[in-house]
Specification:
Layout (H helix, E strand, L loop, with lengths): L1 H24 L1 H10 L6 H4 L4 H22 L5 H20 L6 H18 L9 H18 L2 H6 L5
């Protein structure tokens, strides 16, 4: 009887071993194991975007979208443009809160993009459906511009002497 019991234990151990190997070699198990040790090597995680960079990219995206709308005579995506301008304003506010110093050339570039957007807005025929959007977008642009030229940001500008 003892020999039969040892034989069952040995078979049971082999069965458990093969079962574990089979489970670990399945595709789902490898995904679970790899997820727990995955390292994020995306460009954004390696090279963090600054608040200034985010604000400029959003502003340039609005400019590009408006230019494409006029070029292709498409419908203007008001909500998307307003969302991007709002987030750009948020980024500029974060720059001020964190006392980020902006170079004169960077500020001039950013202001140029904002002026181009304002120029494109001047070509939009204002009517009842888009009036609120245009007024809101122009106010956000004005707030962004004022943020760069407010007393707080003027004191953060680098010395040019």
């Amino acid at each position: 009887m003892k020999k039969n019991s040892n034989n069952k234990t040995f078979k049971h151990k082999i069965f458990n071993f093969l079962f574990i190997i089979l489970c670990l070699s399945s595709p789902k198990a490898s995904l679970i194991a790899s997820d727990s040790h995955q390292i994020n090597l995306s460009f954004d995680s390696l090279f963090y975007a600054t608040w200034y960079q985010k604000a400029v990219e959003l502003t340039l995206s609005v400019w590009q979208t408006l230019a494409q709308v006029f070029e292709k005579n498409d419908e203007i995506p008001y909500e998307i443009l307003l969302g991007k301008l709002s987030y750009a304003y948020f980024c500029v506010n974060r720059m001020q809160q964190e006392k980020v110093v902006s170079l004169a050339d960077d500020t001039a570039y950013f202001m140029t993009a904002l002026r181009k957007i304002q120029d494109l807005f001047s070509f939009i025929a204002i009517h009842e459906k888009n009036y609120d959007f245009i007024v809101c977008a122009q106010e956000i642009i004005s707030l962004i511009q004022k943020s760069f030229y407010s007393p707080v940001s003027d004191s953060l500008k680098p010395d040019t002497q």
